[in-house]
Amino acid sequence: MRLATKVAIITGAASGMGAATAKLFAREGATVVIADVLEPEGREIAAEIGKAGGRASFKKLDVTDEAAWKAVVAAVVAEHGRLDILVNNAGLAGSTTRDYVDTDAWDALMAINAKGVFLGIKYAVPPMRAAGGGSIVNLSSLSGNVGQSYTHMGYNASKGAVRTLTKQAAVHYAKENIRVNSIHPGVMPPMRTAKLTADPVQRQRMIDRVPMGRAGRVEEVAYPILFLASDEASYITGAELWVDGGYLAA
Ligand SMILES: NC(=O)c1ccc[n+]([C@@H]2O[C@H](COP(=O)([O-])OP(=O)(O)OC[C@H]3O[C@@H](n4cnc5c(N)ncnc54)[C@H](O)[C@@H]3O)[C@@H](O)[C@H]2O)c1
Fold first, then answer.
1. Cα–Cα–Cα angle for 224, 225, 231, rounded to 5 degrees
2. Distant-in-sequence, close-in-space partners of 235: CB < 8 Å, separation ≥ 6
3. What does DSSP assign to residue 88?
4. Considering the chain, what percentage of its residues have pLDDT values greater than 70?
5. pLDDT tens, position by position, 119-151
6. Where do the H-state alpha helices sit in the chain?
7. How far, in Å, from the CA of 3 to the mean position of ligand 1?
8. Angstrom distance (rounded) from CA 102 to CA 124
9. How far apart are CA 228 and CA 170, in angstroms?
10. Rounded Cα gap, residues 133 and 9, in angstroms
11. What are the structural domain ranges in the chain?
């Protein structure tokens, strides 16, 4: 098993790519903590993993809440004795409004998508340091690398922040054997909070720009996250991995 003995927190794991990653990590032997604002949905994913023979639990966490981060990480270390992996996956979509300069949307996008990742790193590093190392995988997006006409500018700015924050944290913690990498999914199943980008006509326009000619599947992102989280990626830090069917290569 690729994650035997590892303890992992995955934010936003009540849904989408986070849920797929939680299930895959558990199949690979990890003890998984699903951390999300969606409590019934998160508990359901944990129960599914348990029924399949894996180890998973749910912790309520709003990634913008510093006190909650502190409490969740402390509880995980108290319960499991360590923290090896953090996947900063929770996110807010960039198409909740068609007003691409709405200031409230900017604040929400930066709070969840960027500050949430910063807080995760801040509280995961001390127990990883104490254990002699760890792996942090941050969910950016192809939107962290390029501009798009159909998303709020705060989405691309927040995902760009995740991209650079990843490199900065990788440099800061390299000597402590804490690796930090970013994953950049392309066109995937719509986020729960997506509006315009969930519209079938808009989705087809986006898919038409993907060299592979289709959207990705959640498992196709979960496997690259697994690789970066695992010891197989022991000399990889500060890297960005595009999982986009060729979108950024075109
Ligand atoms: N779906 C896509 O097309 C796509 C493409 C590129 C990148 N991404 C990124 O991948 C990640 C996962 O996206 P997804 O498609 O699985 O989305 P999703 O909407 O299905 O899941 C996001 C999860 O994050 C949780 N969440 C939102 N705000 C939170 C908060 N404040 N605190 C804790 N949890 C919170 C939600 O409850 C949900 O469970 C996100 O960071 C997203 O920006 C998505």
1. 95
2. none
3. E
4. 100
5. 999 999 999 999 999 999 999 999 999 999 999
6. 16-27, 39-51, 66-80, 103-109, 116-131, 153-173, 200-208, 218-229
7. 23
8. 32
9. 13
10. 15
11. 7-245
Residues with Cβ within 8 Å of residue 116, at least 6 apart in sequence: 11, 63, 64, 88, 90
The whole-angstrom separation of Cα 66 and Cα 27 is 30
For the record, the structure tokens of 232 come out as: 């197989």
3-state secondary structure of 59: strand
Q: How many CB atoms lie within 10 A of CB 40?
A: 8
Q: Retrieve residue 179's tokens.
A: 């690796």
pLDDT score at 217: 98
Tens-place pLDDT, residues 54-96:
999 999 999 999 999 999 999 999 999 999 999 999 999 999 9
In 3D, which of 229, 234, 219 has the Cα closest to residue 83?
229
Name the residue at shortest CA distance from atom 42 of ligand 1. Answer: 91
Probe residue for ligand 1, chosen from 9, 10, 11, 17 as the CB with the greatest number of ligand atoms within 8 Å: 17
Q: For the purposes of burial, counting CB atoms within 10 Å of the CB of 29, is it exposed (0-12), middle (13-18) or buried (19 or more)?
A: middle
What is the value of pTM for the model shown? 0.99
- The CATH class for the domain spanning 7-245 reads alpha beta
Query: 236: helix, coil or strand?
Result: coil
Q: For ligand 1, atom 29, which residue shows the shortest CA distance?
A: 90
Query: 85: helix, coil or strand?
Result: strand
